[in-house]
Amino acid sequence: MSQKLTAVKGMNDLLPPDSNAWVWLESVVQKVMRRFAYSNIRTPIVEPTALFVRGLGEVTDIVEKEMYSFEDRLNHEQLTLRPEATAGVVRATIEHNMLYDGGKRLYYMGPMFRHERPQRGRYRQFHQIGAEALGFALPDVDAELILMAHTLWKELGLKNVKLELNSLGEPEERLKHRQALIAYFESHSALLDEDAKRRLHSNPLRILDTKNPAMQDLVNAAPNLMDFLGEKSKSHLKGVCSILDANWVEYSLNARLVRGMDYYNLTVFEFITDQLGSQGTICGGGRYDYLIAQMGGKPAPAVGWAMGVERVIELLKDANLIPKVQGPDVFAVVPESENLEVVMQVLQTLRSKGISVQMHSPSASGNPGSTVTAPITGNGGDEKAARGSMKSQFKRADASGASFALVFGAAELSKGVVTVKSLRDGVGAQREESISQIDGWASSLQSGGEMKDWE
Ligand code: ATP
Ligand code: MG
Predict the structure, then answer these.
(1) To test ligand 1's pocket by mutation, which of 86, 281, 305, 310 has the most ligand atoms within 8 angstroms of CB?
(2) Which residues of the chain have a pLDDT value below 50?
(3) How many CB atoms lie within 10 A of CB 56?
(4) What percentage of the chain has pLDDT greater than the value 90?
(5) How many CB atoms lie within 10 A of CB 363?
(6) Ligand 1 atom showing the smallest separation from residue 307 Cα
(7) Fewer Cβ neighbours under 10 Å: the N or C end of the chain?
(8) Which ligand is closest in space to the CA of residue 112?
């Protein structure tokens, strides 16, 4: 017996019908992105390890302990499964000189990889949908990105998502704050945990991001970056806030919000819910005006966000907001196998008109090659039994959620017609439609508004 193969811990298969929720979410995202005129970008899942070390900062949770890094066995390159997508998007922007004719607004969707302890809302392969606006310096684009996420929650029907906002200021302001932080934490060194001690001199700001409950009081009383911001930084934040105010987007300013990557400056924000336990951040982002230059590009400002798809889906499920996928428009009941060529031709015509069609095909029983497998073609006496009785086919038609059953019986086909049976509105009503004019019937379905993808 060969050993059972299973998925890697923390990495999940996504199966129907659960995957329908994802397809729907992605369709809503695409609609919103289009409304804001953001274009799709797809970058590789594997990138050189150096990209993330340089991009995210050496002293970050991700780079220190969460990356899936390995050496390519053949050419010994150091590679990493992307833990986030901003670094890759910036690399691609530089590599393809995408900002040569002005700023770019981009979005992506896809899997990310972090070696964390799997739990609700935290996986080792998870998915992010993200947006980046590259080459824009003014606060209206920060606000636009926040409005876009806000619009997305609205379109999805999500309520109770709170926006928290902060400014990390500019590097020189952060430096002054950093000195004050080090002095403060040094004077309370007995209260620091191991992580904090290690980061005290390398990245003290990150100590504010601690999840250790024992350190919360200490961190709450630490010097506040807001007090170190200069006029320009303050007015950038004000610019963002006034646009949000004008659009009735509520937010709270949270001076403790620092985010997990080193590349941020000025605006940072998170969308948070209290309905997912401790994994309550569903979307986070901010400005990263120095990253493009730091990665070797011509200096250009940028701002973006990323949301955790698993967490958003979980919220949508809890709130019962996920629409059911519609069944097919048509289920084809095919009692005999003799006329399959004609049947499949008709079904292709319907599909070419945009009608969703499920063909009844008998499921094979047993293992491939076993003698109990039903014959697909042939004229054996058990042919009818193999395709399934009319009754069992109608049962499947009902279960499929189809609006209509089309019955392709030999008697109908010899007359050049097919029986159309309504399975939903006016159940049982039936009439004959001419096969040669089946595209006309298909058009009548479309104009009758039969063709919704989601209920
Ligand atoms: P957290 O503080 O929860 O670890 P983070 O700051 O590491 O989050 P980001 O790097 O900002 O997260 O990623 C953006 C979003 O991606 C998060 O807000 C979250 O919704 C989602 N996310 C991050 N890590 C995971 C994970 N391991 N599993 C599922 N979703 C995740
Ligand atoms: Mg994290």
Answers:
(1) 281
(2) 370-381
(3) 23
(4) 77
(5) 7
(6) 15
(7) N
(8) 1
Give the model's pLDDT for residue 47. 98
CA of 260 to the centre of ligand 2 (A): 7
Name the strand (E) or helix (H) holding 419: strand 417-422
Q: Given this model, what pLDDT does residue 315 score?
A: 96
Pocket (CB within 6 angstroms of ligand 1): 84, 114, 116, 121-123, 126, 128, 260, 279, 281-284, 306-308, 310-311
pLDDT of residue 366: 54
Query: What is the whole-number distance in angstroms between the Cα of residue 110 and the centre of ligand 1?
Result: 13
CATH for 18-169+229-318, options being 3.30.499.10, 2.60.40.10, 1.10.357.20, 3.30.930.10: 3.30.930.10
Model pLDDT, residue 105: 98
CB 219 within 8 A of CB 256: yes
- Per-residue pLDDT tens for 151-195? 999 999 999 999 999 999 999 998 899 999 999 999 999 999 998
> Encoding tokens for residue 223?
């010097």
DSSP state of 404: E
SS3 72: coil
Query: CA-CA distance, 201 to 207, in Å (whole number)?
Result: 10
Give the residue, out of 126, 287, 315, with the most ligand 1 atoms within 8 A of its beta carbon, to mutate for a pocket test.
126
Atom of ligand 1 nearest to the CA of 122: 28
All residues at 6 or more sequence positions from 288 whose CB lies less than 8 Å from its CB, including other chains: 86, 263, 264, 265, 302, 303, 304
Taking the CB of residue 447, how many other CB atoms lie within 10 A of it?
8
Q: Whose CA is nearest to atom 23 of ligand 1?
A: 308
pLDDT of residue 326: 85
Q: What local confidence, expressed as pLDDT, does residue 379 receive?
A: 46
Q: Report which protein residue has its CA nearest ligand 1's atom 10.
A: 260
Amino acid at 274: D
Q: Enter the CATH code of domain 330-454.
A: 3.40.50.800
pLDDT, residue 57, reads 87
Cα–Cα distance for residue pair 163/143, rounded to 1 Å: 12
Helix (H, G, I), strand (E, B) or coil at 296: coil
Q: Where in the chain is the domain with CATH 3.30.930.10?
A: 18-169+229-318
Provide the 3-class DSSP secondary structure of residue 62.
helix
Give this prediction's pTM: 0.90
- For residue 315, which ligand has an atom nearest its CA? 1
